[in-house]
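HUMAN: Spend a minute on the protein record below and explain its fold to me.
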Amino acid sequence: MSLDYSRKQSVVFFSDIVGYTRLMGKDEDRAFALMRQNLQIHQDVLSNFRGQIIKELGDGILAIFETVPDALAASLEIQRQQSLIPDMSIRIGLHIGDIIFDKGDVFGDAVNLTSRIQGIGVPNCLLISEQIKDQIPAKSEFQTSRLGPFRLKNVDHPVELFAVTNPPLVVPKRTEIIKNIQFQEKNPWKFWAVLGASSLVLLYLIYSVFWNNAIWEKEKSVAILPFVNSSENPDQEFFSEGLTEDVITQVSKIGSIKVISEEAVSRFKNSTSPLDSIAKVLNVSTILKGSVQWMGDKIRINVQLIDPEDNKNLWAETYNREATEIFQVQEAIATEIARVLNSSLSAEELNQLSKTQTNSFEAYELHLKGRELYANYDKQSVLEAIEYFKAAIKKDPNYALAYASLADCYAQLNYFGEGDEWLDSSLEMSAKALEIDPYLAEGFKSQGNVYYYRGQNEYAKISFEKARVLNPNLSSAIGNLATVYFVSGNLTEALKLQKKSVSLNPTNFIPYQICGWIYRELDQFDEAYDWLDRSYSLQKDPVTIEQKAFIEIEKGNLTQALDYIDSLFIEKDDTTALDFSTAGNIAFFAGDWDTAERFLIKSMEKTPEFEQDEYFTSPILLAYIYSENKELQEAKSLTEKSMTVRESAMELFGDDFNLYLDLAQLEAIQGDRLQAVNYLIIAEEKGLRDDFYILNNPIFKNYLKDARILSILEKISQERIKANQELQSSDLQRNR
């Protein structure tokens, strides 16, 4: 029997930013900036000394090295660079020993001990174990000072510690270390409690080797279908739906298993389709079915894991439990799925699975009712959901997930046009959620959403990345992260993440659409058509039609592009502003300005608040048509209004290249060539990778020989070549 892990002696490296949590509470922007600098320094230095970052969680970094000299040199260089940054101080711990490598993670006693050593250090110090000290070469540049033996929590023998004394390192006093040990024992969660479950993982691996005879050799993937409400009371429907979502969330924390999103499986509620057909649509190897039945104050949960291809039961269980034991049932289901699919659980995953959302079942029920309402995505339902989430928090003020859900609601109110101040409230609630549970993926996802809405793409990226680390199958965070990379100009990363989003939510048209959009920007038109066709088969969205028409325009097929306009209005009882604006866009770029003018005007009639919408482009294109037709007063009015709203938006959404692209068009319409080109330069720097809006844009037809425009186009072309090379390289690696 082969196992999916290996054992090897390595140098374990732990570091963390001292006082980061306190700084986060005082100055969030500064804290995020320090985190980015810290990660960048670690990435750069470790790559130079053959180190490997295993994970980055919160303000701490876990890495490994092959040799002691490399680990010491890297640690010293990191501390040297950190000492040059105001407000930045970190502590580092090193130890060497056997560790287990499993699914990109590491665990074992050596990892545990290193985290303890790092955690008792002082700012700007480098603590090492005796084992590290013994492997320092005799004529090494590294100098050390013996601190003596210490008793560390959960370590059954005294640990001899040394401090590296090379400048600019700080050498702690023995009394300082002892005080930190005492503090650590009072606050164990501060010291990587997630790694304390290593012994459980080892027991699990032993069990897998000697007692688990069913080895799953297919793809490790599962779709958890909506649980059936078997209770006589139909009002308990919310509970079965909420339980389904929670089980999906639990299993999603296991990085080695692909878990289909709740949005995708919800389409198969009460479905009579054969399981193998459902599995084919969702592209999974297993399906979990379940039912929920209330029996007085107790609950019965039946679950069945099925191999739909072979029509075979893999595992089944009935849980008769007190309602208050619901979280233990969720953990048990997730653990059993991992066992059946032969997925080894890391220490961090075990810790995540064992977490209890709340100790109040009443609060849990209130939260489920709120989530049921929130899923309707209309204003009234969101307002009602808010009251349920507040009631849940009143029952349990430490219910982190309820705060995250409340944060989502407040962000939705902003989306419904209730005001930007709701984003502040949303950010406050996600911060509260993360204060209670610093490892809550949903909290980071909610935080990332607000940063994205505000145009703070770098902050959004950090938050979504953290959510993805904590929950590798959280499709909403992955899709949003992909969008952030897309608008930032990183097309290869955006494409990789969108494809991941497709695999987790194969019934959502948007990831397919954006993949097609990216392939169009990369001039891979056949690939673009394939993805856009798949998107359109799921939902007839106008943007998909627009992208297909743009391909025809780029290929010079203007008549075929215009033919797409008719498909926007086929079998539609009610046309939207987006339908009309898309038709106007296609006609504008295809050169049919009469048609463009007619549809652009209709789109504006459907959008009475267009003067306050910084992303509504119909007035810009219409202003150019008016300008060319010598209707100068109309052109001037639309241009000035469009400029005003975008210049105001720049203060909030300064990272968004679309604003600068729009301003470049508006300046060109007004005849300010210099300012138009300046804005295009900024747009490219901010992430503009689609030269379609320059090369095929009538507004810039007289700019294409300008040296600075040619320079912009060359930069975009080089980025496209680079992205295509990266994609080709990754495809080759996959096919080896």
In short: The chain is about 55% helix and 15% strand.
